[in-house]
Write the structure tokens for this entry.
Amino acid sequence: MSKNNEIGISIEKINEISFYAKPLPMPIEEIHLGVNLLFGLGFSFDINLKSEKVIFNTVVKYQIKDIEEPVLQLENEIIFHIQNLKEVIKIKKDNEMDVENNFLITLTGVAIGTLRGMLAANTKSTQWANFPLPLLNPQQVIQEMNPNK
């Protein structure tokens, strides 16, 4: 890749889409992340090659084992501007986009870190502050979400 085709990534905007946290359903001493407090992540993204923008949505849900509804949920969106976006996106014959894996790992890492910071800010001074989003390997997250790649 020549110097003119270097990829530049910048964050244009970060939006909180939604947040809610219910009161802890049991004493805090009985809640253990990964045991009876489970969390799940979800990602989606929209790519606009013409404007060189990627809108990356991330959601985290915390759920108490055996309770159907999430007890905490945060969704955000990050709007990235990607200089030379076409260098990391390939259009297949069926008009599907193939996103370069390392590029996706980079955006996922930024999204997870941003989500963790927003979760910490939203739960500050509450009992939920005792349950921050764990450290996650973005490469492993991508692999688990798309095992065929």
Summary: The first strand starts at residue 8 and ends at 21.
